[in-house]
Design goal:
The complex is a heterodimer of chains A (216) and B (242). Chain A has helices spanning 5-43, 49-63, 67-80, 87-112, 116-124, 129-159, 171-182, 186-214. Chain A is mostly helical. The radius of gyration of chain B is 20 Å and the shape is flat. Chain B has a single domain (3-232), classed as Orthogonal Bundle (MetI-like fold). The N and C termini of chain B lie far apart (42 Å). Chain B has 242 residues and is an all-alpha fold. In chain B, 79% of the residues lie in helices and 0% in strands. The chains are: A mainly alpha (216), B mainly alpha (242). At the A-B interface, helix 3, helix 4, helix 6, helix 7 and helix 8 of A face helix 2, helix 3, helix 6, helix 7 and helix 8 of B.
């Protein structure tokens, strides 16, 4: 096994570009999944089954099918329907949509974990429905679910390399491009492998600190 | 879609199922070995197992697959058949996730059970085999069920390396037909059906195992509640960072 530090330093500029794209995709994907997941969770609490049933089926379907195929679907089918987005946008939407079906369960568990007394107190104070949600239930529910949401951000980080399959040049895409141009596979792939471990380890440390602050 | 193309898709399904079975077996073996090692007496064994888990859980499955396909051959002179390379990468990665499940379930067995084993002067191996595992395994099944579905979704990654699985044959059909909506809908549906069958099988297994240790298998809805708590990590003590 031979290791070429020259290749590592040649690859580094590409690595930083890739890292930037990965983090962009991660940040935007998280925002979409947090927002959309909350929407799904709230829709699932509506009294009418005509909303709950379709939402349940669709989210179950999205959760149990591979993100990779969903990426292909959005990337190749949407242009056929006349909607053209950049590869990165498509990827971010796909990741956000896929993970929203996970965060939805997190929100649901968080909302159910709010004690019944809080609901009763809101009723007793004659708070309107909207204010019950925004001022009483959600602030408590979301505080509880932040660590679990953070775990999904870390999972999402580890799924961003799939965007390479739809031509986005994130970390793995850059590594593959570099390897194909220079016929050196070992160094770039190992560099990004270590980078993933480092980033997700740092993120989990950060999350643990956040968890300690929030859960008291 | 013509019959020829359907045959292609069926071949893809077969490859996906094979890869799923092999990597699930490897992942189960890895997760039990590493998970048990993480409860070992010696700190060095615990440390090594924990290190393994952090490394393989920290990196992405796709990066792992690239590594096994491109870095292992020149570095060590092994050229693996694609099926085994895929199995190795997926099994090691998902085994690391599984080891957390095993460790959690072993730790959640009532400490008095272990102490009972000590009092009866069981060897550590007997304690594990006769006392801890029979009680811990049924508790692991809902989490393993989720992990199995994740693994099924993970098998689609090998299509990027040109292995002819379901996602890959979907791409071939897209190229042949020059239109994508239909074939990708079918591919997604097939994956969903496989995942559904797996979930049902695992639920049956859980019921059987729980009956084996004299626990109430519970109603369907109770099982789902349990599963949800374990999936989301909300409301459970020590959810930890994944």
């Amino acid at each position: 096994m031979k290791w070429d530090w020259g290749a590592v330093s040649d690859f580094m500029p590409h690595f930083w570009d890739g890292l930037l794209v990965t983090l962009q995709a991660l940040a935007l994907g998280s925002v979409i999944s947090f927002a959309l997941g909350l929407v799904w969770a709230l829709l699932m609490r509506l009294p009418t089954r005509w909303v709950r049933w379709p939402v349940g089926v669709v989210t179950e379907f999205v959760r149990n099918t591979p993100l990779l195929v969903q990426l292909f679907f959005l990337f190749y089918v949407l242009p056929e329907w006349g909607l053209t987005f950049s590869a990165l946008t498509t990827g971010v939407v796909a990741i956000g949509l896929h993970y929203s079906t996970y965060t939805m369960q997190v929100y649901r568990a968080g909302i159910e974990a709010v004690p019944a007394g809080q609901w009763e107190a809101a009723t007793a104070l004659n708070l309107p429905r909207r204010r019950t949600w925004t001022a009483v239930i959600l602030p408590q529910a979301i505080r509880r679910v932040i660590p679990a949401l953070g775990n999904y951000v870390i999972s999402m980080l580890k799924d961003t390399p799939m965007l390479m399959a739809i031509t986005v040049l994130e970390m793995l895409g850059q590594a593959r491009l570099y390897s194909q141009q220079h016929f050196q596979f070992t160094e770039p792939l190992t560099v990004i492998g270590v980078a993933f471990i480092l980033v997700s380890y740092l993120a989990s440390l950060l999350l643990r600190a956040l968890e300690r602050r929030l859960v008291r | 879609m013509t019959t020829g193309l359907w045959e292609l898709v069926l071949k893809g399904v077969w490859t996906t199922v094979q890869l799923l079975i092999f990597s699930a077996l490897l992942a189960t073996a890895v997760s039990f070995v590493v998970g048990v090692a993480r409860t070992h007496r010696l700190w060095i064994v615990r440390f090594l197992a924990g290190f393994y888990t952090e490394v393989f859980r920290g990196t992405s499955a796709l990066v792992m697959i690239f590594w096994v396909f491109f870095v292992l051959p020149p570095a060590f002179g092994w050229q693996l058949v694609p099926m085994w390379a895929g199995t190795l990468a997926l099994g090691l990665t998902y085994g690391a996730y599984g080891s957390e499940i095993v460790r959690g379930a072993l730790n959640s067995v009532d400490p008095a059970q272990r102490e009972g084993g000590v009092a009866l002067s069981f060897t550590p191996w007997q304690r594990l085999r006769l006392i801890l595992l029979p009680q811990a395994v049924p508790e692991m099944i809902p989490s393993f069920c989720n992990l199995l579905v994740e693994l099924l979704k993970g098998t689609s990654l090998v299509s990027i390396m040109g292995m002819g699985d379901l996602a890959f044959s979907g791409n071939l059909v897209r190229l042949a037909l020059q239109q994508s909506a239909e074939i990708y809908t079918y591919v997604l549906l097939i994956y969903f059906v496989i995942a559904f069958v797996l979930t049902r099988l695992m639920r049956g297994l859980e019921k059987r195992l729980k009956r084996g240790v004299g626990k109430d298998p519970g109603t369907e809805s109770a099982a789902r509640e349990l599963k949800r708590a374990e999936t989301t990590g909300v409301g459970t003590a020590g959810g930890g960072a994944a």
